[in-house]
Amino acid sequence: MAHIHEKIDFTASVYIVQDAKILLHKHKKLGIWLQPGGHVELDEGPTEAAIREAKEETGFDVELVGQHSPKTEPLGRSNSLLLPMFLNRHNYDATHEHIDFSYFARVVGGTLTPEDGVEMLWFSREQIEKGEVELLPDTRAYALAALDYFAQHS
Question: Residue 11: its pLDDT value, please?
Answer without folding.
Answer: 93
